[in-house]
Specification:
2 copies of one chain form a homodimer. The first copy, chain A, is of the alpha/beta class. Chain A has helices at residues 8-15, 19-26, 34-46, 53-60, 76-89, 105-118, 135-142, 166-179, 195-210, 228-239, 253-265, 299-315; strands spanning 65-70, 95-100, 122-125, 147-151, 160-164, 185-189, 220-222, 247-250, 275-277, 294-296, 325-328, 331-333. Chains A and B meet through α4, α5, β2, α6 and α7 of A and α4, α5, β2, α6 and α7 of B. The structure holds a DNA duplex (16 and 16 nucleotides).
Chain lengths: 341, 341
DNA sequence: TTGTAGGCGTTATCAG
DNA sequence: CTGATAACGCCTACAA
């Protein structure tokens, strides 16, 4: 059909006036005759006129595009953060481009290249688990594009950050297990160069130390990913130990559920034989048998705050020099997979 | 830092040549001296030159933006479709803008407006459950922007479609329940103006009729949404019926899991007292106790094919007049929440 | 109150 | 082999 979009010049010609008058009329410029305004606005509506954003971008050197880099979008965790971001951005003139790295550093670099190419105005990023170098992010920063890092920290990158106190979450979980009488507590961790994995491990270790429980090497196994299938082998090794643990603290809910599944297959009773606590509070988690104890994180708020901070750089005066570092607290939710205190 | 982006003219000036020569050199135009090419390309790299996409869009009347409209992104179902789409699009020059409607028609209309404003080149859409009018989609179509509808049909809109044989999936599930000896089979459905809900209901009804099982009004309850919480009340009503059903076929896994949860709370044994089958095969579903029987759908393929069809319109010759309608088959996966045959 | 001209960055056409 | 020019759609001084 009508392939060619209606332009300001089309309207001008039909009305026998100049394009600039049309432009001004459309913007309600005070120095335009009322009748002219009316005529222009009427015709614009009739012809279904929309201003060409590309022309405006070119003029204003601003694309109104915000890039989001995340590890993946299929987990409830990250998709909820995105929802939080979108719910803020939807009220603005910006649009977001979401690009998942699939936990690959190479993909991440390619995404950044693409973002530079299309000219994003701002970047929200949660780095991949395999990201060790940050040259690509610095390249963005050097171009004057504001960055906000969320959930997973990116050490060495001096930008705004919205994180969660993973250390404290883990500490709470493990101290609870200790108080409930567990003596030998194991940990299924995540990829170690991830700040979140590291801090949860640290919380686990400190909880043991504080309570004078010796740390046992064989009680700590790091999964290579965060999916159910990544948790099966680690769970089996732990459950088959001669000195079997009486509790498992997993770095996220999927791994915890895998552990629960394996424990049940071996006919262990949960939480009597073994307590299990996860991390993230996925929506399914309370529907398992037994319902999974876990750490809740304010995912939606993380998304919203990250977006708000980025917008403040984009919209606000350029003179906000201080780099912000916001840390959300997480919350222990005790259900049936851990013993009562 | 260096706020202003490097342009072709910057390079031209430094090299004392014209912008057009720079442009040609950058594109490896045959009619350019090797030394000039080298000099230009070297300087371009040194200065970190990137072509301005907005200028190109303006010139070519093409934004290279693809819009995606989906009900929500937090379910594994839709986020997997998106992943399928992205995995195709990532190899092209296009970028996607994902906008969730949150099942609201008003949001959907607003998103379409925004898409027209920013000038998307193509649209992938799975309509909201409250969408009855399709004027907004027709507006897109009239502008010559190709549309592919996926998963949920949009009756009346004559565009390419990538759907799933929901009817057949439901038929398979219910016929299995019948063969396994269930006599009174209930259905927890979804919002009825959704093609998927309707077709699954039809499959349920036809399975009963084919097997001469009378359809009972009180065995069919429609949930208002697709989340766990939407399934609780419907499940309770069914389970509290004097003439309690011995099987429940739910329109998706979340509702099925809610039903399982409620049944367990009432101390029914699954599948002995009551069989349960869901739809979608969410990743968690096999980890529940008992593991949930369900219908698997090729979500990832739905996303990929939809993207491919859209691209064929965008890239290919404009002369592909036939409207495609692709229907994927779904597959019954029997686990432990239903009796053996 | 309105029109003209120039420019945002790039490419295609035409000319040399 | 290379340069000047116009055009994509819009806005804003400046001029009238």
């Amino acid at each position: 059909m009508s392939k060619r979009r209606v332009t300001i010049t089309d309207i001008a010609e039909k009305l026998n006036i100049s394009a600039s008058t049309v432009s001004r009329a459309l913007h309600n410029h005070p120095a335009i005759k009322k009748e002219t305004k009316k005529a222009v606005q009427k015709l614009a509506k009739k012809l279904n006129y929309y201003p060409n954003q590309q022309a405006l971008s070119l003029l204003h050197k601003k694309t109104n595009l915000i890039g989001i880099i995340i590890p993946e979008i299929t987990s409830h965790f990250f998709s909820s953060i995105i929802t939080g971001i979108q719910d803020i951005i939807v009220d603005t003139d910006y649009n977001v481009i979401i690009s998942p790295t699939d936990e690959s550093y190479e993909n991440e670099v390619a995404i950044v290249e693409n973002f530079i190419k299309i000219g994003i105005d701002g970047l929200l990023v949660s780095p991949s688990s395999s990201t060790k170098k940050i040259k690509h992010f610095k390249k963005i920063k050097k171009r004057g594009i504001p960055i906000v890092v969320f959930d997973r920290d990116c050490p060495g990158l001096k930008v705004d950050k919205v994180l969660v106190d993973d250390y404290d979450g883990a500490l709470q979980a493990v101290e609870y297990l200790i108080k409930s009488g567990c003596k030998s507590i194991a940990h299924i961790g995540g990829p170690l160069n991830l700040s979140t994995s590291k801090h949860r491990l640290d919380g686990y270790l400190d909880a043991l130390r504080k309570n004078n429980i010796p740390v046992k090497e064989e009680y700590i196994i790091h999964a290579t990913g965060f999916l159910h299938e990544d948790g099966i082998l680690p769970s089996r090794s732990l459950l088959n130990l001669k000195d079997r643990p009486d509790a498992i603290f997993a770095v996220n809910d999927c791994l915890a559920i895998a552990a629960m599944h394996e424990a049940k297959k071996l006919n262990f009773s949960i939480p009597n034989d073994i307590s299990i606590i996860g991390f993230d509070d996925e929506p399914h988690s309370s529907y398992f048998t037994p319902a999974l104890s876990t750490i809740w994180q304010p995912v939606y708020s993380i998304g919203m705050l990250s977006a708000r901070i980025l917008l403040s750089h984009l919209e606000g005066s350029e003179n906000a020099p201080k780099i912000r570092r916001e840390i959300f607290k997480s919350e222990l939710i005790i259900r049936a997979s851990s013993r009562n205190i």
